[in-house]
Amino acid sequence: MHIGFSLPQYGAMSDQLDKLAGFARQAEELGADSLWVGDRVLAAVNPSVGYMGTDTIPWQLRTMLDPFVALSVAASVTERVLLGTSTLIAPWYSPLLLARSLTGVDVVSGGRLIPGLGTGWSPEEYQGVGVPWQEWGARLDECLDVLEAVWTTEPVARHEGRHYAFPAAHIGPKPLQRPRPPIYLSGFAPASQRRAARRADGVLPVAVPVRGSAFDPATVINQPLREVRRIAEAEGRDPAGIDAILRINPTTESTVPEIADIILRTGDETDVDHVFVDFVHLADQGVDQALELLRQTMELSR
């Protein structure tokens, strides 16, 4: 099992961003296999859609370091860990600029990028970046088209899309990974499943440890992944080529043994071999606490 962790990018850890490089270096030394970032631009005071079914957005999500800054810092001080995004909100970005930023991370890290893309859940964030909320699906599809073209062809053919256009052009550098970095997509709604089945190399399911409620690998991982692979096969793709990386989102009440149990059961009861843990809601004392939680998790999970 590959075990990764989110970088100290937001929450209480965002007050100690000068420790980000040290966290990345020590995480690698402690045996972490991957480091991850998320993507937010604001937390509305009165959101129309709250976090995880609530009517508010928790204080931990009010501040976030730019994901590309965090990845670049981590890439510069590590040698082995994979560097993932879970998730970048692709519709917010010009696809050419997103391709450039992701390519840069892959190149400077020596080919360690795992780009995970999604659409987010906050209409106010779309408003803030000037992108209509209703266009998220079409923009994500067009972004995937542009990433594929930029990363796999030279010169890149002229693009005339619904939202973006550019002439035939030379666009470099190319990612070190060939033919391109593996693209993971988030979301298990029917439309998201169909998109992932047609276009992604993997999916990003999420598990939330809840006190008194047992983790169910069948519901969280096996059944949704089986459906994505079924659709992929119907589309003429090899279903075995659809991977999954499990994100574990502990709450403020979660414990390390609960987290470790999810990791171990994922290894025993699914064919997923990569998980990562986001300590943003648990490490309320900052980066040093996150490192200690990381150390304990590794000890109980290996």
TrEMBL record:
Q: Which SUPFAM superfamilies did the record assign?
A: Bacterial luciferase-like
| NCBIfam families, per the entry | F420_Rv2161c
> Which species does the entry assign this protein to?
Streptomyces hainanensis
- Please state the Enzyme Commission number of this protein: 1.-.-.-
The broad enzyme category this protein falls into is: oxidoreductase
The record's section on InterPro entries has:
Lucif-like_OxRdtase_Rv2161c, Luciferase-like_dom, Luciferase-like_sf, SsuD_RutA_monooxygenase
GO MF annotations, alphabetized: alkanesulfonate monooxygenase activity
* Example of a GO biological process term: alkanesulfonate catabolic process
Keywords recorded for this protein, A-Z: Flavoprotein, FMN, Monooxygenase, Oxidoreductase
* Record-given protein name: TIGR03619 family F420-dependent LLM class oxidoreductase
Which segments constitute the Luciferase-like domain? 9-256
